[in-house]
Amino acid sequence: MEQKIRRDRNMGDNLRRLRADKGISQEKLCAELQRRGCDIGRTTYAKYEAGELNIRASVIIELRKIYNCTFDDFFEGLDISEE
Predict the structure, then answer these.
(1) 18 and 63 in contact (C-beta within 8 Å)?
(2) Rounded to the nearest 5 degrees, what angle is found at the Cα of 78, between the Cα atoms of 72 and 80?
């Protein structure tokens, strides 16, 4: 269980990095997601970035369009095997 939480946090780091690279605030990002039909508030999105909530696939699909990135960018670093 602990390993899963750590991986979720890594995804949160990726979400935060992609948003920062785009230069957009959580508020503006959530407004854009809502415009695209994803009912996401800033508090919920902040929990995605903090690794406290798992993000829905439908939100990732819209984020990919907003960021003009690949799905791999969201999962960067999550497939590292620990020995």
Answers:
(1) yes
(2) 120
- The C-alpha atoms of residue 48 and residue 19 are separated, in whole angstroms, by 12
**Tokens linked to 34:** 């809502």
From the CB of residue 59, how many other CB atoms can be counted at a distance below 10 Å? 18
Q: What is the pLDDT along the chain (83 residues), one digit of tens a residue?
A: 455 555 445 689 999 999 999 999 999 999 999 999 999 999 999 999 998 888 999 999 999 999 999 999 998 887 766 54
49 within 8 A of 15, measured Cβ to Cβ: yes
CATH of span 2-69:
1.10.260.40
Half-sphere exposure of 36 (CA within 13 A, CB side): 17
User: How far is residue 60 from each of residues 1, 18, 55, 74, measured CA to CA in Å?
Assistant: 23, 12, 7, 8
